[in-house]
Design brief:
Blueprint lengths: L15 E8 L2 E9 L2 E6 L12 H17 L3 E6 L2 E7 L7 H5 L4 E3 L2 H10 L1
Parallel strand pairs: 3-4
Antiparallel strand pairs: 1-2, 2-3, 4-5, 5-6
Length: about 120
């Protein structure tokens, strides 16, 4: 696997375009930027991510990113196989998910698919 120095805040610098990440001939992650909307679509990950932190810890860390996205009037949509699961930033409208994420800038759109994605990762 090749290392990269791509900063985590690259979301703010890309204004338009697409980036497809594949493993072999299989698409893994699709990234799309268009105006103030960024989309990350997780198709398939050929590796398992380490589960160092619980989901609440991960949301606490995502709160800072979501707040910064809101300040920049940008939205990040996280999808799984084309279906919207989580929205962060400007267009996030949390209701019940605010109790889980402890953030007004993170919306879990589909709890069932979210739990499914969490298990797959």
């Amino acid at each position: 696997m090749k290392k990269t120095n791509l900063p985590a805040n690259f979301l703010f610098y890309l204004k338009s375009g697409k980036l497809n990440i594949s493993y072999g001939n299989n698409p893994c992650i699709l990234f799309k930027a268009e105006q103030n909307i960024r989309e990350i679509d997780i198709i398939d990950l050929p590796i398992k991510l380490p589960k160092k932190f619980g989901i609440l810890k991960q949301f606490r860390e995502a709160k800072d990113l979501a707040k910064k996205l809101k300040e920049e009037k940008t939205t990040l949509d996280i999808k799984h196989d084309g279906e919207l699961i989580i929205r962060l930033g400007e267009k996030a409208k949390p209701k019940f998910s605010k109790l889980v994420t402890l953030s007004k800038n993170i919306e879990i759109v589909d709890f069932k698919r979210f739990r499914q994605l969490e298990k797959e990762l």
